[in-house]
Amino acid sequence: MITEVVQKKERSLRGHRLFGEVAGTLIELGVPFWLDQGTLLGVIREGKLLATDHDIDLGMWEEDYREIAPALEARLKGPGRWLETYKPHQLSIRVLDGEADIINIAFYRRRDGMAVKKIYYPGGGRAAGMLIKAAVFCARAADGSLEHKLPAGGFYRFMKEAARILPASLWRFFSFRAGGMQYRFKPYVIMAVPEHFFLQLEKINFEDMKLKVPADPKAYLALKYGPDWRRPRNEWVFWKDDGAVIRP
Predict the structure, then answer these.
(1) Are 65 and 76 in contact (CB under 8 A)?
(2) How far apart are CA 193 and CA 213, in angstroms?
(3) What would the pLDDT profile of 106-165 be if each residue is shown by its tens digit?
(4) What is the pTM of this model?
(5) Which of 11, 209, 214, 219 could cross-link to 49 by cystine, CB 3.0-4.6 Å?
């Protein structure tokens, strides 16, 4: 008997379907951004993306995003992707054939010498769950990628037919409304770090790319993940364990 071992392909920034385009667009638009959260932790601690981290985390100043939002969204829109512009705390860009390639750009505000952001976490009960499912459905309907995403049945045949008849602009409107409404039910925390981490960014070389990270990234990671941040932890609940949480 022969047992075949299939190794999972290691994740990388260069191989990410969205990172190069998103980073290149932000650079062209002239706004600073940096690696953040689990992405930064993996790059600094392990020299690679964390296997357990499913997204790419970036940070930027909210005021910068507001200035370039129309141009950024216009450049990044395209078939097979979804820009979750309804989120009050970040911009998420994802591909619609799964959740393996997603970028989250968190928005920070300056407040009394601190860089402050809001983070929502899973919760909100059935209402929030139904709304995000509706938002995903409508996004796929607008994109024309529902064909293999719905099971058989009369109701689903009706929904597929509705997706074919109704204009994409209407489905995008429904997606935006449903996605935004979920945040009426979801809990959140407030995080804050000294703003100097983001005022003078450092550059590092990673996968033959020059990328910006917070100033003194090791001190930043120690603040957020504790003095033993170099030691991997089996469990990490970001809305409770992150050292930057100032208000639950």
Answers:
(1) no
(2) 14
(3) 999 999 999 999 999 988 899 999 998 889 888 988 888 776 555 555 555 667 777 778
(4) 0.89
(5) 11
